[in-house]
Amino acid sequence: MNVDEIKSFITENANSEDVQGLISELTAPTVERLNREKAGLDRTITELKKNVGITLTPEQAEKSRVILEKAAELEAFEKRLKTREAGLQYAADNGIDLRIAQHFIKGDEEETLRTIDDMKQVLSEIVEPYRIDAERFRCSQAAPGGGDAQTWTKAKIARLSITEQSRLYKSDPEFRKIYRGMYSR
């Protein structure tokens, strides 16, 4: 049967108890849902009608205003707190010192995370050359017990800054021995 045949059958047999029972059975859930929605709307309209007639005294209006302001402040504080917690957690997960990261907490969570990523990138770009230099310096230092030791000459020592000479004098026994030989009489 197609839809047109079904429609014509229902129209022809509309007075039949079987057809009426079938139609009411099929439409019952929809009718019940609509009745529940109508009852809910009726309650809302009744409540609105009651509230329309209420007038607030100036004291009540002021209290209501203060309560609404405090609620808005509380909501804003909770949002800032959530953003701060998310930002600090993200920084901790990425190995960023929290004392630095707390200065990059911004208005919302997305902006905070983006700012922390930017800060991490900038710091990496700044620190990377020094890390490489420190690694090269560690590799060039005299190894204990011989082996890959740095060969110090008077010319190399003379090219070093006073600060570097002082640091090497304290940390490298080979350097100390040559240095004493250069400047002792």
Characterize the structure shown:
The chain has 185 residues and is an all-alpha fold. The protein is 78% helix and 0% strand. It contains eight helices and no strands. The protein has helices at 3-12, 17-52, 58-93, 98-101, 109-140, 154-159, 162-171, 173-183. The longest helix has 36 residues, at 17-52. It is elongated and about 125 Å long. Mean pLDDT is 78; it is low at 142-148.
Relevant terms:
185 residues, mainly alpha, 8 helices, elongated
Topology:
Blueprint: H1 3-12, H2 17-52, H3 58-93, H4 98-101, H5 109-140, H6 154-159, H7 162-171, H8 173-183
Helix pairs in contact: 3-5, 7-8
Helix content: over 70%
By helix and strand content, what is the structural category?
A: mainly alpha
Largest sheet, in brief, is: none
Can you count the beta strands?
0
Residue runs with pLDDT of under 50 for 5 or more positions:
142-148
Give the H and E element order: HHHHHHHH
Kindly summarize this structure in a few lines.
It is built from eight helices and no strands.
